[in-house]
Design brief:
The structure is a single chain. By secondary structure, this protein is an alpha/beta fold. The chain contains 15 helices and 13 strands. It has a nine-stranded mixed beta sheet with strand order 5-6-9-4-3-10-11-13-12. α10 links the parallel β3 and β4. It starts with a helix and ends with a strand. The relative contact order is 0.13.
Length: 409
Protein backbone atom coordinates (compact mmCIF):
# COMPACT_ATOMS: atom_id res chain seq x y z
CA UNK A 1 0.00 0.00 0.00
CA UNK A 2 1.97 3.01 -1.24
CA UNK A 3 -0.11 5.38 0.88
CA UNK A 4 1.66 3.84 3.89
CA UNK A 5 4.79 5.69 2.84
CA UNK A 6 3.08 8.97 3.61
CA UNK A 7 1.45 7.63 6.75
CA UNK A 8 4.91 6.93 8.18
CA UNK A 9 6.68 9.95 6.81
CA UNK A 10 4.03 12.61 7.27
CA UNK A 11 3.60 15.24 4.60
CA UNK A 12 6.88 17.06 5.15
CA UNK A 13 9.58 14.56 6.15
CA UNK A 14 10.69 14.04 2.58
CA UNK A 15 14.26 13.06 3.39
CA UNK A 16 13.00 10.02 5.28
CA UNK A 17 10.78 9.12 2.34
CA UNK A 18 13.76 9.54 0.05
CA UNK A 19 15.63 6.96 2.10
CA UNK A 20 12.76 4.51 1.67
CA UNK A 21 12.59 4.96 -2.08
CA UNK A 22 16.21 5.51 -3.04
CA UNK A 23 18.11 3.80 -0.28
CA UNK A 24 21.31 5.22 1.19
CA UNK A 25 23.02 5.77 -2.19
CA UNK A 26 21.49 9.05 -3.30
CA UNK A 27 23.41 9.06 -6.58
CA UNK A 28 21.54 6.10 -8.04
CA UNK A 29 17.98 4.92 -7.91
CA UNK A 30 17.74 1.67 -5.97
CA UNK A 31 17.46 -1.21 -8.44
CA UNK A 32 15.31 -3.13 -5.97
CA UNK A 33 12.51 -0.57 -5.98
CA UNK A 34 9.01 -1.93 -6.46
CA UNK A 35 8.15 -0.91 -10.07
CA UNK A 36 4.56 0.09 -9.27
CA UNK A 37 5.88 2.94 -7.11
CA UNK A 38 6.93 4.76 -10.27
CA UNK A 39 3.42 4.73 -11.71
CA UNK A 40 1.36 7.92 -11.90
CA UNK A 41 -0.63 6.93 -8.80
CA UNK A 42 2.48 7.16 -6.62
CA UNK A 43 3.72 10.30 -8.34
CA UNK A 44 0.32 11.88 -7.78
CA UNK A 45 0.51 11.11 -4.05
CA UNK A 46 3.93 12.72 -3.89
CA UNK A 47 2.80 15.82 -5.75
CA UNK A 48 -0.32 16.28 -3.63
CA UNK A 49 1.05 15.38 -0.21
CA UNK A 50 4.55 16.85 -0.48
CA UNK A 51 4.98 19.36 -3.28
CA UNK A 52 1.54 20.91 -2.80
CA UNK A 53 1.53 20.76 0.97
CA UNK A 54 0.52 24.30 2.07
CA UNK A 55 3.16 24.49 4.81
CA UNK A 56 5.92 23.28 2.51
CA UNK A 57 4.85 25.84 -0.10
CA UNK A 58 4.73 28.72 2.36
CA UNK A 59 7.89 27.73 4.21
CA UNK A 60 10.03 25.86 1.65
CA UNK A 61 13.14 23.78 2.32
CA UNK A 62 16.38 24.80 0.60
CA UNK A 63 16.44 25.12 -3.18
CA UNK A 64 19.10 22.40 -3.50
CA UNK A 65 17.08 20.03 -1.34
CA UNK A 66 13.90 20.52 -3.37
CA UNK A 67 15.79 20.20 -6.66
CA UNK A 68 17.54 17.02 -5.53
CA UNK A 69 14.23 15.41 -4.62
CA UNK A 70 12.35 16.39 -7.77
CA UNK A 71 15.24 15.40 -10.05
CA UNK A 72 15.55 12.01 -8.34
CA UNK A 73 11.86 11.36 -8.75
CA UNK A 74 11.97 12.26 -12.43
CA UNK A 75 15.15 10.20 -13.03
CA UNK A 76 13.59 7.19 -11.31
CA UNK A 77 10.41 7.40 -13.36
CA UNK A 78 12.37 7.86 -16.58
CA UNK A 79 14.70 4.93 -15.85
CA UNK A 80 11.65 2.78 -15.13
CA UNK A 81 10.29 3.82 -18.55
CA UNK A 82 7.15 5.22 -16.98
CA UNK A 83 5.26 8.42 -17.71
CA UNK A 84 6.44 11.47 -15.75
CA UNK A 85 3.73 13.40 -13.92
CA UNK A 86 3.27 16.79 -15.66
CA UNK A 87 3.35 18.64 -12.32
CA UNK A 88 6.74 17.11 -11.55
CA UNK A 89 8.07 18.51 -14.80
CA UNK A 90 6.49 21.87 -14.01
CA UNK A 91 8.15 21.88 -10.58
CA UNK A 92 11.52 21.04 -12.09
CA UNK A 93 11.20 23.91 -14.57
CA UNK A 94 10.20 26.34 -11.79
CA UNK A 95 13.18 25.29 -9.68
CA UNK A 96 15.55 25.85 -12.60
CA UNK A 97 14.13 29.33 -13.18
CA UNK A 98 14.32 30.29 -9.50
CA UNK A 99 17.83 28.97 -8.87
CA UNK A 100 19.55 32.35 -8.98
CA UNK A 101 16.74 34.15 -7.16
CA UNK A 102 16.89 31.70 -4.26
CA UNK A 103 20.68 32.00 -4.06
CA UNK A 104 20.42 35.79 -3.92
CA UNK A 105 17.83 35.56 -1.14
CA UNK A 106 20.43 33.99 1.16
CA UNK A 107 20.86 30.79 3.12
CA UNK A 108 17.62 30.59 5.08
CA UNK A 109 15.64 27.42 4.29
CA UNK A 110 12.79 26.15 6.45
CA UNK A 111 12.45 22.76 8.05
CA UNK A 112 9.09 21.32 9.10
CA UNK A 113 8.52 18.30 11.32
CA UNK A 114 5.36 16.35 12.01
CA UNK A 115 4.92 15.12 15.57
CA UNK A 116 2.36 13.28 17.69
CA UNK A 117 0.70 15.65 20.15
CA UNK A 118 0.48 15.05 23.86
CA UNK A 119 -2.87 13.26 23.51
CA UNK A 120 -0.98 10.50 21.67
CA UNK A 121 -3.28 10.62 18.65
CA UNK A 122 -3.56 13.98 16.90
CA UNK A 123 -0.74 15.33 14.77
CA UNK A 124 1.05 18.65 14.95
CA UNK A 125 3.65 20.37 12.81
CA UNK A 126 6.50 22.62 13.90
CA UNK A 127 8.24 24.82 11.34
CA UNK A 128 11.45 26.77 11.83
CA UNK A 129 13.74 28.75 9.56
CA UNK A 130 17.25 27.37 9.79
CA UNK A 131 20.49 27.36 7.82
CA UNK A 132 22.05 24.78 5.52
CA UNK A 133 25.56 25.97 6.35
CA UNK A 134 27.17 26.48 9.74
CA UNK A 135 26.81 30.26 9.54
CA UNK A 136 25.36 30.84 13.01
CA UNK A 137 25.18 28.42 15.91
CA UNK A 138 21.71 29.70 16.82
CA UNK A 139 20.33 28.96 13.34
CA UNK A 140 21.08 25.24 13.64
CA UNK A 141 18.62 22.60 14.87
CA UNK A 142 20.49 20.72 17.59
CA UNK A 143 19.59 17.12 18.51
CA UNK A 144 18.79 17.95 22.13
CA UNK A 145 15.91 20.15 20.98
CA UNK A 146 13.98 17.07 19.81
CA UNK A 147 14.79 15.12 22.97
CA UNK A 148 13.49 17.94 25.15
CA UNK A 149 10.45 18.57 22.94
CA UNK A 150 9.46 14.92 23.24
CA UNK A 151 9.76 15.14 27.02
CA UNK A 152 7.43 18.16 26.97
CA UNK A 153 4.88 16.28 24.86
CA UNK A 154 5.04 13.28 27.19
CA UNK A 155 4.53 15.43 30.33
CA UNK A 156 2.05 18.11 29.22
CA UNK A 157 0.65 18.71 32.72
CA UNK A 158 4.07 19.92 33.87
CA UNK A 159 3.88 22.81 31.42
CA UNK A 160 0.18 23.49 30.92
CA UNK A 161 -0.81 26.79 32.48
CA UNK A 162 2.75 27.40 33.76
CA UNK A 163 5.26 30.19 33.23
CA UNK A 164 8.00 28.58 31.10
CA UNK A 165 11.45 29.98 30.35
CA UNK A 166 13.77 28.48 27.70
CA UNK A 167 17.50 29.24 27.89
CA UNK A 168 19.46 29.28 24.63
CA UNK A 169 16.33 28.74 22.55
CA UNK A 170 18.12 29.08 19.18
CA UNK A 171 15.67 28.33 16.37
CA UNK A 172 12.82 27.99 18.87
CA UNK A 173 11.90 24.43 17.92
CA UNK A 174 11.43 23.30 21.52
CA UNK A 175 9.63 26.50 22.53
CA UNK A 176 7.31 26.08 19.56
CA UNK A 177 6.40 22.59 20.78
CA UNK A 178 5.81 23.97 24.29
CA UNK A 179 3.14 26.20 22.73
CA UNK A 180 1.11 23.11 21.86
CA UNK A 181 0.63 22.23 25.55
CA UNK A 182 -0.66 25.75 26.33
CA UNK A 183 1.58 27.30 29.00
CA UNK A 184 0.48 30.51 30.68
CA UNK A 185 3.60 32.34 29.50
CA UNK A 186 6.53 31.31 27.34
CA UNK A 187 9.76 33.32 27.41
CA UNK A 188 12.36 32.21 24.86
CA UNK A 189 15.83 33.63 25.37
CA UNK A 190 19.13 33.79 23.55
CA UNK A 191 21.96 36.28 23.19
CA UNK A 192 23.04 37.16 19.64
CA UNK A 193 20.93 39.77 17.83
CA UNK A 194 20.40 37.83 14.58
CA UNK A 195 19.49 34.70 16.53
CA UNK A 196 16.89 36.65 18.52
CA UNK A 197 15.39 38.01 15.30
CA UNK A 198 15.20 34.53 13.77
CA UNK A 199 13.80 33.13 17.03
CA UNK A 200 11.01 35.71 17.06
CA UNK A 201 10.19 34.93 13.41
CA UNK A 202 10.01 31.19 14.07
CA UNK A 203 7.84 31.55 17.14
CA UNK A 204 5.45 33.78 15.21
CA UNK A 205 5.12 31.07 12.55
CA UNK A 206 4.16 28.49 15.15
CA UNK A 207 1.93 30.84 17.15
CA UNK A 208 0.01 31.37 13.90
CA UNK A 209 -0.18 27.62 13.32
CA UNK A 210 -1.60 26.98 16.78
CA UNK A 211 -4.00 29.89 16.33
CA UNK A 212 -5.20 28.50 12.99
CA UNK A 213 -5.67 25.08 14.59
CA UNK A 214 -7.78 26.60 17.34
CA UNK A 215 -9.71 28.64 14.79
CA UNK A 216 -10.48 25.51 12.77
CA UNK A 217 -11.73 23.73 15.91
CA UNK A 218 -13.96 26.68 16.69
CA UNK A 219 -15.20 26.93 13.11
CA UNK A 220 -16.18 23.27 13.14
CA UNK A 221 -18.17 23.96 16.30
CA UNK A 222 -19.88 27.11 14.94
CA UNK A 223 -17.74 29.35 17.11
CA UNK A 224 -15.76 31.95 15.18
CA UNK A 225 -14.79 34.34 17.98
CA UNK A 226 -11.14 33.30 17.89
CA UNK A 227 -8.74 36.15 17.16
CA UNK A 228 -5.22 36.10 15.79
CA UNK A 229 -2.36 36.88 18.18
CA UNK A 230 -1.19 40.46 18.23
CA UNK A 231 2.30 41.84 18.72
CA UNK A 232 2.87 43.84 21.89
CA UNK A 233 6.06 45.78 22.64
CA UNK A 234 7.48 44.64 25.96
CA UNK A 235 10.83 46.38 26.45
CA UNK A 236 14.16 46.80 24.73
CA UNK A 237 15.03 43.20 25.41
CA UNK A 238 12.10 41.49 23.76
CA UNK A 239 8.95 41.47 21.69
CA UNK A 240 5.84 39.65 22.84
CA UNK A 241 3.13 37.82 20.93
CA UNK A 242 -0.05 37.79 22.94
CA UNK A 243 -3.08 35.59 22.19
CA UNK A 244 -6.71 36.28 23.12
CA UNK A 245 -8.26 34.15 25.87
CA UNK A 246 -10.94 31.86 24.59
CA UNK A 247 -12.84 28.67 25.31
CA UNK A 248 -13.90 26.00 22.85
CA UNK A 249 -16.65 23.47 23.44
CA UNK A 250 -16.53 20.35 21.33
CA UNK A 251 -19.72 18.63 20.22
CA UNK A 252 -20.91 15.09 20.91
CA UNK A 253 -18.65 12.89 22.99
CA UNK A 254 -15.55 15.06 22.51
CA UNK A 255 -14.01 16.60 25.63
CA UNK A 256 -14.30 20.28 26.43
CA UNK A 257 -11.03 22.06 25.79
CA UNK A 258 -9.85 25.30 27.40
CA UNK A 259 -7.69 27.45 25.16
CA UNK A 260 -5.70 29.51 27.62
CA UNK A 261 -4.10 32.77 26.71
CA UNK A 262 -0.36 32.28 26.16
CA UNK A 263 1.89 35.30 26.40
CA UNK A 264 4.99 34.65 24.27
CA UNK A 265 8.12 36.78 24.56
CA UNK A 266 11.58 36.76 23.02
CA UNK A 267 14.14 38.18 25.43
CA UNK A 268 17.90 38.73 25.30
CA UNK A 269 19.69 36.90 28.12
CA UNK A 270 23.50 36.98 28.36
CA UNK A 271 24.68 34.26 30.74
CA UNK A 272 27.97 36.10 31.30
CA UNK A 273 26.29 39.37 32.26
CA UNK A 274 22.72 38.75 33.34
CA UNK A 275 20.68 40.66 35.89
CA UNK A 276 18.87 38.65 38.57
CA UNK A 277 16.13 41.27 38.30
CA UNK A 278 15.40 40.04 34.76
CA UNK A 279 14.90 36.48 36.06
CA UNK A 280 12.66 37.87 38.80
CA UNK A 281 10.63 39.77 36.20
CA UNK A 282 10.11 36.64 34.09
CA UNK A 283 9.43 34.63 37.27
CA UNK A 284 9.45 31.21 35.59
CA UNK A 285 7.92 28.16 37.20
CA UNK A 286 9.78 25.79 34.88
CA UNK A 287 13.04 26.41 33.01
CA UNK A 288 14.12 24.31 30.03
CA UNK A 289 17.27 24.14 27.92
CA UNK A 290 18.44 21.92 25.06
CA UNK A 291 22.01 21.24 23.98
CA UNK A 292 23.47 24.01 26.14
CA UNK A 293 26.52 22.16 27.51
CA UNK A 294 28.52 21.98 24.29
CA UNK A 295 31.49 24.06 25.49
CA UNK A 296 33.24 23.91 28.90
CA UNK A 297 33.52 27.72 28.98
CA UNK A 298 29.73 28.10 28.95
CA UNK A 299 28.85 25.69 31.74
CA UNK A 300 29.70 27.81 34.80
CA UNK A 301 27.88 30.93 33.52
CA UNK A 302 24.90 28.77 32.56
CA UNK A 303 24.81 27.21 36.02
CA UNK A 304 24.90 30.70 37.58
CA UNK A 305 21.69 31.53 35.68
CA UNK A 306 20.10 28.22 36.66
CA UNK A 307 21.02 28.64 40.32
CA UNK A 308 19.49 32.13 40.29
CA UNK A 309 16.29 30.74 38.78
CA UNK A 310 16.01 28.06 41.45
CA UNK A 311 17.22 29.83 44.58
CA UNK A 312 16.27 33.51 44.30
CA UNK A 313 14.28 34.51 47.38
CA UNK A 314 11.19 35.42 45.37
CA UNK A 315 11.59 32.58 42.87
CA UNK A 316 8.63 30.46 41.83
CA UNK A 317 10.85 28.10 39.84
CA UNK A 318 10.23 24.46 40.71
CA UNK A 319 12.62 22.74 38.31
CA UNK A 320 15.04 23.08 35.41
CA UNK A 321 14.91 20.39 32.71
CA UNK A 322 17.87 20.05 30.36
CA UNK A 323 18.65 17.70 27.49
CA UNK A 324 21.98 17.12 25.82
CA UNK A 325 23.94 14.45 23.95
CA UNK A 326 27.27 13.28 25.36
CA UNK A 327 29.61 14.40 22.59
CA UNK A 328 32.68 14.80 24.75
CA UNK A 329 33.18 13.12 28.11
CA UNK A 330 35.51 15.83 29.40
CA UNK A 331 32.85 18.50 28.75
CA UNK A 332 30.26 16.39 30.53
CA UNK A 333 32.63 16.02 33.47
CA UNK A 334 32.82 19.82 33.74
CA UNK A 335 29.03 19.86 33.97
CA UNK A 336 29.09 17.17 36.68
CA UNK A 337 31.73 19.13 38.60
CA UNK A 338 29.56 22.26 38.49
CA UNK A 339 26.63 20.25 39.85
CA UNK A 340 28.82 18.95 42.67
CA UNK A 341 29.94 22.49 43.59
CA UNK A 342 26.33 23.55 43.94
CA UNK A 343 25.04 20.36 45.56
CA UNK A 344 24.26 22.23 48.79
CA UNK A 345 21.53 24.21 47.02
CA UNK A 346 20.68 22.16 43.88
CA UNK A 347 19.75 18.51 43.43
CA UNK A 348 20.14 16.70 40.12
CA UNK A 349 18.54 13.52 38.82
CA UNK A 350 18.71 11.95 35.39
CA UNK A 351 15.41 10.77 33.95
CA UNK A 352 14.45 8.40 31.15
CA UNK A 353 14.12 9.73 27.63
CA UNK A 354 10.54 10.20 26.49
CA UNK A 355 9.08 8.07 23.67
CA UNK A 356 9.74 9.41 20.21
CA UNK A 357 7.01 11.62 18.83
CA UNK A 358 8.76 13.24 15.87
CA UNK A 359 8.70 11.40 12.57
CA UNK A 360 12.41 11.01 11.96
CA UNK A 361 14.64 8.80 9.93
CA UNK A 362 15.15 5.94 12.37
CA UNK A 363 11.39 5.36 12.34
CA UNK A 364 11.69 4.52 8.65
CA UNK A 365 14.04 1.54 9.11
CA UNK A 366 11.31 -1.12 9.38
CA UNK A 367 9.33 0.24 6.47
CA UNK A 368 12.43 0.50 4.32
CA UNK A 369 13.39 -3.07 5.12
CA UNK A 370 9.88 -4.24 4.23
CA UNK A 371 10.09 -2.38 0.93
CA UNK A 372 13.37 -4.17 0.16
CA UNK A 373 11.97 -7.53 1.26
CA UNK A 374 9.05 -7.18 -1.14
CA UNK A 375 11.51 -6.99 -4.01
CA UNK A 376 13.66 -9.90 -2.77
CA UNK A 377 16.54 -7.81 -1.46
CA UNK A 378 17.93 -7.00 1.96
CA UNK A 379 18.08 -3.67 3.75
CA UNK A 380 19.29 -0.76 1.67
CA UNK A 381 21.72 0.48 4.34
CA UNK A 382 21.89 3.31 6.80
CA UNK A 383 19.36 6.09 7.01
CA UNK A 384 21.90 8.90 7.16
CA UNK A 385 21.64 11.92 4.90
CA UNK A 386 22.97 15.35 4.20
CA UNK A 387 22.22 18.32 6.44
CA UNK A 388 23.98 17.77 9.78
CA UNK A 389 21.13 19.23 11.79
CA UNK A 390 19.17 16.02 11.44
CA UNK A 391 18.39 14.72 14.93
CA UNK A 392 19.44 11.14 14.29
CA UNK A 393 22.90 12.04 12.99
CA UNK A 394 24.12 12.56 16.56
CA UNK A 395 23.28 9.22 18.13
CA UNK A 396 20.22 9.82 20.27
CA UNK A 397 21.08 6.78 22.45
CA UNK A 398 23.74 8.99 24.06
CA UNK A 399 21.29 11.71 25.00
CA UNK A 400 20.67 12.66 28.61
CA UNK A 401 17.77 14.34 30.37
CA UNK A 402 18.51 15.91 33.74
CA UNK A 403 16.11 17.56 36.18
CA UNK A 404 17.55 20.17 38.55
CA UNK A 405 15.62 21.30 41.64
CA UNK A 406 16.20 23.47 44.69
CA UNK A 407 17.42 21.43 47.62
CA UNK A 408 15.00 21.43 50.52
CA UNK A 409 16.33 23.01 53.69
Amino acid sequence: DISKVFEWVGTLETRAMKNVIFGSDYGHVASTLVPMWWQLAFQDLFVNKVLEDPIARKYPPSHDYRSEWVNMMIDGVTNAKCEVHPLLLKEQEALLRSRHDDAAAGDAPYRSYDFTRHDGESKGTVTVQTTSSFSNIGFWIWPGAFTLAEYVLSHPKLFHGKRVLELGAGTGLTSSVVLSVQPKTLTATDFEALTLKRLEHNLQINVDMEDNLNHNHNHNNNNSDNKKPTHTKENEEGVGVEGEEEKEKKQGSEKERDLKKTDVKVVKLDWFDFKPSLIAQIDPEIVIGADLCYSPDLISPLMNVIETCLTQATSSCKMVIMSFPIRNQSTHQVFEQELKKRSSVITARYVDLAPRRFQREKKMTKLKTKASDRSGAGSTGSTGGSGGEDPDDDGSDDHKLVVLERRSK
